[in-house]
Specification:
The protein is an alpha/beta fold. The protein has a single domain, classed as Alpha/Beta hydrolase fold, catalytic domain (Rossmann fold, 3-Layer(aba) Sandwich). 32% of the residues lie in helices and 22% in strands. It contains 6 helices and 9 strands. A 9-stranded mixed beta sheet has the order 1-2-3-5-4-6-7-8-9, sandwiched between helices. The chain is globular, with a radius of gyration of 17 Å.
């Protein structure tokens, strides 16, 4: 089932272990063809216009972009940025098993319907989606790579997954704001120690002057343009490295 918006993007619905889930799909120009796929995992506010815009930007680099509605169990598709309390309730209800059920369903859909295997698919997540991206890295799915933008709750909290680091078999790129109160210095140190101990190939860029959500240009009070641009330069270089172009 699909709901087409215009030629290059649409909403589709895929089956998951917990019922149907809507997924926003943005495609690169047909003349390019996708060189791989990128799962864009939402902040705590749903697959809103900002996340859809991120997906569209990803297609400019030749990737098929898919943004699954990880809130599908709640029936709430989007929240405003001032609905922080409601957002915290929604993400508190989504533990690792639910996240993996959803991302696994998307990876299987891409392999089956788009002929893009996990090995040619990367995961990029923001805020709650950063935690979800890190969680996906522990699944054994052997994705091409995972990028975590300011993902709180990885090292501590009810859904922490740092104890699963030994299961990570994909390269990681992490972006953390040095002024982010949701990921304090001891969490940063714990993440680095666990990844190093597990032998994970990773880069962790701690941006000293940035806080939480520094790459979200829909939130002027959070957005740090120079830091966001730097983080995206590193991200696209990482994606090109782990998913090199398949065409000449």
């Amino acid at each position: 089932m699909s709901e087409r918006i215009h030629a290059s993007e649409e909403w589709i619905t895929i089956a998951t272990a917990d019922g149907p889930m809507r997924v926003f799909v943005a495609r690169p120009p047909a003349s390019q063809g996708p060189t791989g796929a990128v799962l864009v995992l939402q902040e705590a506010f749903g697959v809103n216009e900002h996340i859809r815009t991120v997906a569209r930007r990803v297609t400019e680099h030749g990737y098929l972009a898919v943004a699954p509605d990880l809130f599908h169990r709640s029936g709430i598709a989007e929240l405003r940025y001032d609905q922080h309390a409601e957002a915290m309730d929604l993400i508190a209800a989504l533990g690792p098993d639910a996240v993996l059920a959803d991302t696994t369903a998307v990876l299987e859909h891409l392999a089956r319907e788009e002929a893009i295997p996990a090995a040619h698919t990367a995961v990029v997540g923001f805020c709650f989606g950063g935690r979800a991206a890190f969680t996906t890295a522990t699944s054994g799915a052997k994705t091409a790579g995972v990028v975590v933008f300011y993902g709180p709750g990885v090292a501590a909290g009810p859904h922490a997954v740092l104890d699963r680091a030994a299961h990570i078999d994909t390269p990681l790129l992490l972006h953390t704001g040095g002024q982010d109160p949701t990921i304090p210095a001891d969490h940063i140190a714990a993440i680095d120690a666990a990844l190093t101990r597990a032998g994970v190939t990773y880069e962790h860029h701690v941006h000293p002057e940035a806080g939480h959500a520094f790459a979200c240009d829909a939130r002027p009070d959070k957005y740090v343009p120079e830091t966001a641009a730097e983080a995206w330069r590193h991200t696209y270089a990482f994606l090109e490295r782990v998913m090199p172009p398949t065409h000449a």
